[in-house]
Design goal:
Elements: H1 2-6, E1 8-12, H2 18-27, E2 32-36, H3 61-72, E3 77-81, E4 100-103, H4 108-120, E5 135-139, E6 151-155, H5 163-175, E7 184-188, H6 217-237
Parallel strand pairs: 1-2, 1-4, 2-3, 4-5, 5-7
Antiparallel strand pairs: 6-7
Amino acid sequence: MERIQSKRVIIFGVGGVGSWCAECLVREGIEHLTLVDSDVVCPTNVNRQLMATTKTIGQPKVEALKSRLLDINPEAEILALQKNYSKETAADFHLETYDYIIDAIDSLKDKIELILQATSTNKSLISNPLIPNPTLFSSMGAALRIDPTKVRVSEFWKVKGDPLAAAMRSAMRKKKLFPARKFLCVHSEEQPLPNLGTALQDGSQTFNKTQTNGSLAHITGIFGMTLAGLVIQDIKAETE
């Protein structure tokens, strides 16, 4: 428990996946957690995002989630940053100071940028070379799925059947920019269901700009909790 409590985790994107990951980590003992998301809670978030209720509509997502997490553990150090991760803002987050980086970003461009930066962050350049580099865990697409038994964990280049992962790999190959280290992803082997229409836009960044891909809480929750489980599993492995 002391080892878990000492770890520093940053989560990029606290929507349907990231919010569940954050609560799971705090309930399991993580006390140093940074939340990054620029959006506010809107009515279309209530079906799947942990902190989204009729009472939190209009509040910054990171602040609403921080309040809930502090109700769970008032002694936790929760930093709420209402901003986007991008190439322009990357230096603001000091990734080298974290043990774990959770990618739950929707934007294709920003997601790729975070992955490239996270996997190339080298703590030995700024501190004790014996300190491990930050570990990245990433969420692929959870939208338009309904089967919880199809959720899997795979290395990025081995993720199959996920349009988001395929688009990311294609963009990386085109630009000849590749992750410096391997990393695990949570994804679904279920093929996305057809998107039957559009919905009210909530201002969030989405993978497909022409339509809103619906998500269900039991899938996004499993994605988020699986990401949290990977963190705890990795901490446990330090003693083995």
